[in-house]
Design a protein that fits this description.
Layout (H helix, E strand, L loop, with lengths): L1 H9 L7 H22 L16 H8 L7 E5 L6 E9 L2 E10 L6 H5 L4 E4 L2 E3 L2 H21 L8 H14 L6 H10 L5
Antiparallel strand pairs: 1-2, 2-3, 3-4, 4-5
Protein name: Spt6 SH2 domain-containing protein
GO molecular function, one term: nucleosome binding
InterPro entries: SH2_dom_sf, Spt6_SH2, Spt6_SH2_N, TF_Spt6
Length: about 190
């Protein structure tokens, strides 16, 4: 009997047999749902000047023409207990930082769409989005702007910057011995 069942399964038309196609379509549906959950989010009922109900791609597009240091807080594709901070670091370079919301009542559906009672980024805990902006984002942006305005900061891709640095290094005067190096530093110690 088993042998006949095996022959019967091998001779099935894949376009006609309903059991097999339903299993494949279920797997295909599950795969599409996973892809959709990555691309889309549930709109949230949060009112704050830095919050927008947009996707990752829309946040990047919105920040593309703005200065480095600009940011958007948006819903996360990870679920209703998460937000994401999208920060423009440089042209074409963006950072996405997860904000975990705490203190939500998961039994109440409207509570899931509102902001949590506590917000956590890494080990830091905040009470609201204003505090996130004041204690987390603003210091981060000030350090970013200091880095971008530093005299040794070089603009360009990694390959371009590596080439620039190797050219600068080859142009620097090389010292044969330690004595000439000490003399050089003594002459130029106050140079900026």
């Amino acid at each position: 009997m088993r042998f006949l069942d095996l022959i019967h399964v091998q001779n099935l038309d894949p376009y006609y047999h309903e059991e097999r196609s339903s299993t494949q379509s279920d797997q295909e549906k599950a795969r599409k749902e996973r892809e959709m959950s990555k691309k889309y989010f549930k709109p949230r009922l949060i009112v704050h000047p830095c919050f927008q109900n947009i996707t990752t791609d829309e946040a990047i597009e919105s920040l593309s023409d703005k200065d480095p240091g600009e940011s958007i807080i948006r819903p996360s594709s990870r679920g209703p207990s998460f937000l994401t901070l999208t920060l423009k670091l440089y042209d074409g370079v963006y950072a996405h930082k997860a904000i975990v919301e705490g203190g939500k009542e998961h039994k109440d559906i409207t509570s899931l769409f509102r902001i949590g009672k506590t917000l956590k980024i890494g080990e830091d805990t905040f009470e609201d989005l204003d505090e996130v902006m004041d204690r987390y984002v603003d210091p981060l942006v000030s350090h970013l702007k200091a880095m971008l305005s530093y005299r040794k900061f070089r603009k360009g891709t990694k390959v371009e910057v590596d080439q620039l640095l190797s050219i600068e290094k080859s142009e620097k005067r090389m010292y044969e011995d330690i004595d000439s190096l000490v003399v050089y530093f003594q002459k130029h110690i106050d140079d900026r």
